[in-house]
Prior knowledge:
The chain is of the alpha/beta class and 253 residues long.
Amino acid sequence: MTERSFAELVAEATGAPVTGWGFSWLDGRATEERPPWGYARLMATRMAQVSAALDVDTGGGEVLAGVPTPPPLLVATEGWPPNAALARRTLRRLGATVVRVGRAPVLPFRDGTFELVTSRHPIDTWWDEIARVLRPGGTYLSQQIGPGTMRELSEAILGPLPPATGRHPAHAVAAAEAAGLTVVRLEEATLRAVFHDVGAVVWFLRKVVWTVPDFDVERYRPQLATLHERIRAEGPFVAHARRFLIEARNPAP
């Protein structure tokens, strides 16, 4: 098979849709190890045990849609309009209500509405609001992005970066406890991510915007071309994703 050019790979990845939170476009082009705790399985188990649940930053609803036994009251929030519209279609069969939220750290629900709040890779964690909408004895379960995630890829585009300080598990624990929650589980994982061509890199950077916050193909074309030649000469580009699982409970009276 003829090797595809840099221009062809970049054009294809630039034109591909990035709506939602699915990654099937990368099938055969990139891989990432899964965390050992199995977040989707954990979420599904917890959803089957409660009567009211909220999924925050649901994306296109892809992860929540895998829940086989949803609770009678199931609500999801999403801030990006295209994702919110996709989530409404995706989650219709579960009977879930999708609520679009703004940037203000406010969840538009009454105090103590939910037994379970979940979130996979939230943009921000509004700990005070999560504590407020949880019922006494309720649980928050979240898989989050760890510090320095995909640093190798960020530095391939941006050059050397200062040490990562944000999104640290210890900060999450402190914020949860400050909101009155009790952290009952905390796990961390470093996961190998492999990119087989520069098109996969471009699509990933368009979708996972915090990797290179101002990413634009034309702005970073020289760096992308260098990465393309590196992959051709040395083989797939390897980076490491960092994740942590946090579970916190609202103490029962």
